[in-house]
Amino acid sequence: MATAVQSQNDNSTNPQGTAKSISSLKDSLGNSQIVNKAKQFAKDRPWATATLAGVVGVALLNTLRGR
To answer: Among the four 3, 20, 22, 26, which has the fewest Cβ within 10 Å?
Structure first.
């Protein structure tokens, strides 16, 4: 388990590791219909996308903050 944490930390300090994970994520998603719909929604409605991202971000922070 310690090696898994160590390798994760190595990737987080190495920008190339982050780029590799992003490119592998793009490869795994590919040109799926859901991704294309999400991109089109973001292009058509930038303010709605920003609002949605903000609401999700605040909800995530509240979840991580705890009580």
So the answer is: 3
Task: Give the number of domains in the chain.
Answer: 1
The whole domain housing 50 covers 16-66
The predicted-structure confidence for 42-57, as pLDDT tens digits, reads as follows 999 999 999 999 999 9
Residue whose C-alpha is closest to residue 12's, from 21, 23, 1:
21
Residue in this structure with the two tokens 């705890």, named with its chain if needed? 66
Would residue 29 count as lying in a domain?
A: yes
pTM confidence score = 0.50
Q: Which of 59, 52, 27 is nearest to 44 (CA)?
A: 52
**Residue 67, pLDDT score:** 62
Let me know if residue 11 belongs to a domain.
no
